[in-house]
Amino acid sequence: MLKFVKQNLENIDGVSIYPIISLLIFFLFFVALFLWVFTAKKEHINEVSNIPLDDQLKSEHS
Question: Which Pfam families match (predicted)?
Fold first, then answer.
């Protein structure tokens, strides 16, 4: 199976650019995520981290 795929891919001109593009997309996504995590406001992080606890408290009081 791999031999069949490899043989077909070798016949396509410029196919070597696709792994580079996918690596760049992967890398840029995680760099953006890393930057967002370090620039996010502490209040927002605390609010989001308490969402499961807030839902549990609401269900206990109902």
Answer: FixQ
Residue 41: CA count within 13 A, CB half-sphere: 3
CA–CA distance, 29 with 35 (Å, rounded to integer): 10
User: SS3 of 41, please?
Assistant: coil
- Could you tell me the end-to-end alpha-carbon distance of the chain, in angstroms, rounded to an integer? 58
Distance CA 3, CA 1 (A): 5
The pTM (predicted TM-score) of the whole model is 0.56
Q: How far lies 46's CA from each of 13, 31, 38, 42, in Å?
A: 51, 22, 14, 6
Q: In this predicted model, what pLDDT tens digit does every residue of 32-52 receive, in sequence order?
A: 999 998 998 999 888 888 888
